[in-house]
Every structure is written in C-alpha cells, then in structure tokens.
Automatic annotation (TrEMBL):
GO terms for molecular function: ATP-dependent activity, acting on DNA; DNA strand exchange activity; double-stranded DNA binding; nucleotide binding; single-stranded DNA binding. It comes from Puccinia graminis f. sp. tritici. Keywords: DNA-binding. The keyword DNA-binding applies. The keyword DNA-binding applies. Pfam families: HHH_5. It comes from the Eukaryota. GO terms for biological process: chromosome organization involved in meiotic cell cycle; DNA recombinase assembly; DNA strand invasion; mitotic recombination; reciprocal meiotic recombination. This is Uncharacterized protein. InterPro entries: DNA_repair_Rad51/TF_NusA_a-hlx. One of its GO terms (cellular component) is condensed nuclear chromosome.
Length: 78
C-alpha cells in the first residue's frame, strides 16, 4: 500500500535521518518549530538558516532530502 502524497507532508522530520540528515540537525529543526516535512518545505531558507547551527549548505541538503521524502507533487515557490 502506498502512502498518499498529502500524508507524506505531515511525516515527522525524524524521517530525514534516513537520508543522511544528522539527529542533531533534526533536533535543531524541531526546537525551531519545524516538526514535519511540510514545515521544512514551506519554510524559507532564511527561516532555516536563522536556527543556530544550521548553515546554508545544511539547508540545501535538508530541503533536498525533504523534497525526496515528499514525492514529486510538491513544488516550492523558489
């Protein structure tokens, strides 16, 4: 049974660890209020880089990984 694309948006950010995002970075995302894949995908790069310890390079990797988890149906404004 495949998961509906909409439900993947609400997947916990812990799933990012499967794609190489560190547990420390995931904790920083959660502490910053980004608990779901949707929250990460809809956040601006500026919002994510404002989190202590999250660099622009990490933001690119996090957003890329979140996009892979969400499937092909989600498009960002940028």
């Amino acid at each position: 049974m495949t998961e509906a694309p909409e439900s993947r948006f609400y997947t916990d950010v812990d799933a990012l660890q499967e794609l190489g995002i560190s547990a420390q970075d995931i904790k920083k995302l959660k502490d910053g209020g980004f608990a779901t894949i949707k929250a990460v995908l809809t956040a601006s790069r500026k919002q994510l880089t404002s989190l202590k310890g999250i660099s622009e390079i990490k933001v690119e990797k996090i957003k890329d990984s979140a996009s892979k988890l969400s499937g092909p149906s989600f498009k960002t404004g940028k």
